[in-house]
Design brief:
Strand content: under 5%
CATH architecture of the largest domain: Orthogonal Bundle
Number of helices: 20
Helix content: 55-70%
CATH topology of the largest domain: Hypothetical protein af1432
Largest sheet: none
Number of strands: 0
Oligomer: single chain
Radius of gyration: 27 Å
Structural class: mainly alpha
Distance between the termini: 33 Å
Shape: elongated
CATH class of the largest domain: Mainly Alpha
Mean pLDDT: 84
Low-confidence stretches: 413-435
């Protein structure tokens, strides 16, 4: 997102303008500015801590409590300092901060307006839960609708996600967690307006904090696994110099195929890991075979063909990889049963392995190797289409062709790749025969 498209910048500017107009509305008489400052400080501090665990949105109950307690402009203001000060991802950081502050400001403003229109504040003050719960639920639904509508727009414009998929499932996926946050926000508002006051209201955040801690522990464990994965891939790259960068490129192609198939984000991530780790079993293969010039003997080929089983043994203890482990084991199987290690046919081959098989073959054909020159991308795609139905799953091949047509093929190139020796003429006509 270094070079944000012009249309995405216009979109962010329009949302920011909407947020500014919401904030500049005349404040209601008697607005408790001390409460605005307290909630804004609480949200900002909470987001700073949560950002370290990469858990954005943990303190949404504070924003929703503001929507239930304050006039709409004041409620929108609660989100702004925390969003502007919170750590963000890659550049452009200023644009990201403005986007997040604007998005949250507009969403909270709409939620507060919806809540106010329902004349629900008396229900909150009286702790009249049937009415207060229903009114808060509608306000939370409005908050969720605005957030997901704006998210879909930025995905389509900045990340170039196809419009037909940009909003798909966003609202339904977000509604359940935001409903929980809304319930916590409602409890904060009720206690705030009760005889116990703001101090008691802050106690509602304690369960949310415990949940955040549990999720942070999970993310730390996941980060440790990912560090292990990176270490394994780097070890393979060092051992098999001719395929340096291959793992990352196969992961990228696998992700493109998965997205084109419309798979859920969680599966897309798992398939990316599958592509990255597919050749990790080469750590168990003698280096002299991996770096051998010229054709392999039948016995040497049998040794190299053990690498999927070696790789499966290495990763089977990493529980979050899920179906990626099957892809590591079966990515050299072929639909006609001519592959290895078990000669599986058709539907016997796991879907994840069929994705990685296409991605692996595509990168092998478009990369320089010791035994083959890189083919142009169109030629490689044509070869995959020729082999679809015999070696490769036609669905996966079609998905890759469409993804490359839409996004192009721009793999990340490691610095060391430019120093590789010049490739020799090919010695094997089969795509990826020595992989």
């Amino acid at each position: 997102m270094e070079a944000l498209p012009a249309r995405a910048r216009v979109y962010v500017a329009c949302v920011a303008l909407g947020a500014v107009l919401a904030l500049l509305a005349p404040p209601a008489a008697g607005t408790p500015w001390w409460a605005v400052a307290l909630l804004a400080a609480l949200f900002a501090g909470g987001e700073q801590v949560a950002a370290r665990g990469r858990l954005s949105g943990t303190f949404y109950p504070v924003l929703l409590a503001g929507a239930f307690l304050l006039p709409a402009p004041a409620a929108a203001l609660v989100a702004v300092p925390g969003a502007l000060l919170c750590p963000v991802g890659p550049r452009p950081r200023t644009t990201r901060r403005v986007w997040r502050a604007s998005q949250l400001g507009v969403a909270v403003w709409v939620a507060a307006q919806a809540h106010s229109a329902l004349a629900a504040r008396d229900a909150v003050a009286a702790a009249d839960f049937p009415d207060a719960l229903a009114d808060a639920g509608l306000a939370v639904a409005a908050f969720c609708l605005v957030l997901t509508a704006l998210d879909g727009g930025i995905l389509a414009l900045a990340e170039r996600v196809p419009v037909r998929r940009a909003w798909r499932g966003l609202f339904l996926r977000s509604l359940a967690p935001l409903a929980v946050h809304g319930l916590a926000g409602l409890m904060m508002a009720v206690l705030w307006r009760s005889a116990y006051g703001p101090v008691a209201a802050l106690l509602v955040l304690l369960p949310m904090w415990v949940s955040w801690w549990v999720f942070a522990q999970y993310h730390r464990e996941r980060a440790a696994h990912q560090a292990t994965i990176r270490g394994l891939v780097q070890a393979v790259d060092i051992k098999d110099g001719y395929t340096r960068g291959h793992s990352e490129r196969v992961g990228q192609a696998s992700m493109m195929i998965a997205r084109e198939l419309g798979l859920a984000d969680a599966r897309v991530e798992v398939l990316r890991f599958a592509g990255i780790l597919h050749d990790v079993g080469k750590l168990g293969v003698p280096t002299r075979l991996l770096r051998k010039d010229g054709p392999l003997t039948p016995e040497e080929r049998r040794v190299i063909e053990l690498h999927p089983e070696y790789g499966h043994e290495m990763v089977r203890g990493i529980s979050f990889l899920g179906e990626a482990r099957a892809a590591v084991l079966h990515h050299h199987e072929r639909l006609d049963g001519s592959g290895y290690p078990y000669g599986l046919r058709g539907g016997q081959i796991p879907e994840s392995a069929r994705v990685v098989a296409v991605a692996d073959a595509f990168d092998a054909m478009t990369s320089n190797r010791s035994y083959s020159r890189a083919r142009p991308v169109p030629a490689a795609l044509g070869e995959l289409e020729r082999c679809a139905g015999s070696h490769f799953d036609p669905r996966m091949v079609t998905a890759l062709v469409r993804a490359v047509a839409r996004h192009g093929w721009h793999p990340a190139v490691t610095a060391d790749e430019t120093s590789l020796p010049q490739p020799r003429p090919p010695v094997s006509p089969a795509p990826g025969a020595r992989r």
